[in-house]
Specification:
The chain has 114 residues and is an alpha+beta fold. Helices cover 20% and strands 21% of the residues. The radius of gyration is 14 Å and the shape is globular. The chain binds guanosine-5'-monophosphate (5GP) and zinc ion (ZN). Guanosine-5'-monophosphate binds next to strand 2.
Length: 114
């Protein structure tokens, strides 16, 4: 099966502005930023969505949050704060079928839904 768009980014088959990478996780700037800082943090493992998480992924998901915090610090927004969003499934508004965490920051973010 053909790789998804984010797997292609991981393989450098599609260019992106990468801000962090290690053996399990990569982070790059969203192509349509919804805030001054809008970074997508993703596992390199192709997990289609939060609903497809497996027990063996638990440590990886924990690590993603530690990486998000590191990126926030590197971007200079750790003190002011940030928002993390994961859209899941059709009702959640997920458009790309590779689990990704939106890191939004750099301004007072808009209306909260929850
Ligand atoms: P979703 O709606 O699935 O939660 O978020 C998908 C995000 O991926 C969107 O914010 C969209 O702008 C971003 N995106 C889609 N295609 C690309 C791409 O080719 N490169 C980058 N950097 N971001 C993308
Ligand atoms: Zn993928």
């Amino acid at each position: 099966m053909e790789d998804c768009i984010f797997c292609k980014i991981i393989k450098r088959e599609i260019p992106s502005d990468i801000v962090y990478e290690d053996d399990e996780i990569i982070a790059f700037k969203d192509i349509h930023p919804a805030a001054p800082i809008h970074i997508l943090v993703i596992p390199k493992k192709h997990i289609p969505s939060l609903v497809e998480l497996e027990k063996e992924d638990e440590a990886l998901i924990g690590k993603i949050y530690t990486v998000i915090n590191k990126i926030a610090e590197a971007q200079g927004v750790k003190e002011k704060g940030y928002r993390v969003i994961v859209n899941c499934g059709r009702d959640g508004g997920q458009e790309v079928g590779h689990l990704h965490f939106h890191l939004l920051a750099g301004t007072k973010l808009g209306e909260k839904i929850v």
